[in-house]
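Project standup — Tuesday

K.O.: blocked on the structure for the chain from last sprint. Re-posting the sequence here as requested.
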Amino acid sequence: RHYGALTGLNKDEMKKIYGENKIQMFRRSWDMSPAPLKKNSPYHPLNMEIYKEIPKEKIPDSESLKNTYNRVIPYYQKNIEPLIRNGKNVLISAHGNSLRALCKNLLNILKKNIPKLEIPTGNPLFINFDRRLNIQKYIYLDTSRAKNIIND
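H.V.: unblocked you, prediction finished:
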C-alpha cells in the first residue's frame, strides 16, 4: 500500500503532524487515502529503479485499503485460487495491508468492520479450503498471540 505523504515518516512523526486519530483513520479505514506524495519525492515509486518497468499511469501517489484490495484480489483470483482448487498448499507472506485486503475478501468482512481487523505480525493464519474454495476452518498457529477475526 502506498501511504502517500506519510511515506518516509515514522509513526511518531506522523502523529505530530496529523494527530493519532487521523493516522489511525489513514491506516485502517477502507477508503481514506493519505495526502498524495509529491512526484519529486525520492520516496515516490516514480523515482525508484525497482518500479521502472511499471507504466507511470499505474503508479499511484497515495492509496487506501480499497485501492490495495483492488490490486490484491485479482492477483489472488488469477494466481492463487487455481493452486488451491488443485489441492496445493500455498504460503502467502505479505504486508499487513495486503493481508487485511485478502482477509476481507476471504472472510467476508464488511467495510465498516475492516478497521477492527488486527493481523498479528509473524503469526500465520492457517486456512483450510475445500476444492470449491469454501473455507473449512481457520486458526492462528500461535494461539497465544491470536487476534479475533471479525466475521460478518
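K.O.: great, moving the ticket to review. The longest helix spans residues 65-85. The mean pLDDT is 92.
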